[in-house]
Structure formats: structure tokens, C-alpha cells
UniProtKB/TrEMBL annotation:
Residues 14-74 form the HTH tetR-type domain. The lineage of its organism: Bacteria, Bacillati, Bacillota, Bacilli, Lactobacillales. This is HTH tetR-type domain-containing protein. Pfam families: TetR_N. Residues 37-56 bind DNA.
Length: 197
């Protein structure tokens, strides 16, 4: 990715990158990702191809930037989790809010890009990684025996599955209800017992 999130960008650069991100989101709401071309994105953003390639390697690089900017809107991104240690519940609430705030955009994208498409898998993978990094950096390894990597993998997968069920499945669930689901799933709703003889 050409974009370096650790470098403060000028307003002009931010405006240009935002224009391309908006063009990508608008395009995804209209057609499948594989039908979107760099030329069409440049036309929508009202910038020449040379400007596009100043900031992005290709449309996949722009897509990474788009997901990064969405994550940044919730103050969750892979690059700042070291400074911002969140509990699993706080991480879940922020991702829930992101999905809620962008639900209409996500649903319009799903209309043109099936749930099992590379685009949707790319989105899910990106946010699973963001959640994983946030949780891994927050796990207190002094109080558990399970490796922090395994805890983070388990929690991030569970969080994403809950949010996919709510938002992609279009189930109306409040944050309180969703947090109850998270608590039950992470604390083990199925208890293994010996069979009674």
C-alpha cells in the first residue's frame, strides 16, 4: 500500500485520497468490484489516472485504503492499537457502531457483490485483522494460560460472526442484545457434561 498511515498528510492529499475512496464506495454500490476500472474511478473522482497512481498501486490498494479509513472512523486501526488498549467489549462496541453507521453502504455493496465474493471476504478479513490486533495487544497474559494469539483469534472470529449475522443477515439487534450474544458465546454457551448413565 502506498499510503503510510504513520505520516501526516496535507489537506490536499487527504482531499484527493478521500475523493478516490468516495468514488470506490459509490462504484461498489452500483456494480461488482471486478467490473470497476481505474479509468471509471478517476472519472468519478474527477482526477487523471496519473494522480490515481501517485497514491495507489491499483484498485486493490485503493480498496485497502477504503477499509482502513472506515476503521479509522471508529478509532480502530491496526496501526494505533498499541497506544489504545481496549477491552473486548469496547472493541466490539466500536465495530458494531461502524457496521451500524455504514449499514446502508454495506448492504448496497452486498447487492452487487455476493457474500462469498472476494470483495466481501477481503472486507471481513481486514476487520478480523483489526479486531485481532486490538485484542491481542490488550490481553493480560499474567492472568490466563492461553496464548494471547489464540485468545485474539477466537474473539475476533466470534465478533465478526456476530456482526455478519446481525448486519448481513439483517437481524434487528440492539448493542445490548449483541453484547449479550458476545458474552454468552465467549463464556461458552455449550457446557460439556458427562453423559448420564
Amino acid at each position: 500500500m502506498k499510503y503510510d498511515p504513520n505520516i501526516k498528510q496535507s489537506r490536499g492529499i487527504e482531499r484527493t485520497q478521500r475523493a478516490f475512496a468516495t468514488a470506490m464506495f459509490d462504484s461498489l454500490a452500483e456494480k461488482p468490484f471486478d467490473k470497476i476500472t481505474v479509468n471509471a474511478l478517476c472519472e468519478k473522482a474527477d482526477y487523471p489516472r496519473a494522480t490515481f497512481y501517485n497514491y495507489f498501486d491499483d484498485k486493490f490498494d485503493l480498496l485497502n485504503f477504503c477499509w482502513f479509513k472506515l476503521g479509522q472512523d471508529t478509532h480502530l486501526d491496526v496501526n494505533n492499537t498499541q497506544e489504545n488498549k481496549l477491552t473486548i467489549k469496547e472493541t466490539f462496541a466500536q465495530i458494531y457502531k461502524l457496521f451500524e453507521d455504514y449499514q446502508s453502504l454495506l448492504l448496497s455493496i452486498i447487492e452487487n457483490n455476493p457474500i462469498d465474493s472476494p470483495l466481501v471476504n477481503h472486507f471481513v478479513r481486514h476487520f478480523t485483522d483489526v479486531i485481532y490486533a486490538s485484542i491481542k495487544n490488550s490481553v493480560d497474559t499474567k492472568v490466563i494460560h492461553t496464548p494471547s494469539e489464540l485468545v485474539a483469534q477466537h474473539c475476533s472470529t466470534t465478533i465478526i460472526e456476530i456482526l455478519k449475522w446481525i448486519y448481513l443477515g439483517q437481524h434487528k439487534v440492539t448493542l445490548d442484545e449483541a453484547e449479550t450474544y458476545l458474552t454468552e458465546l465467549l463464556s461458552g454457551p455449550i457446557h460439556l457434561q458427562k453423559n448420564k448413565q
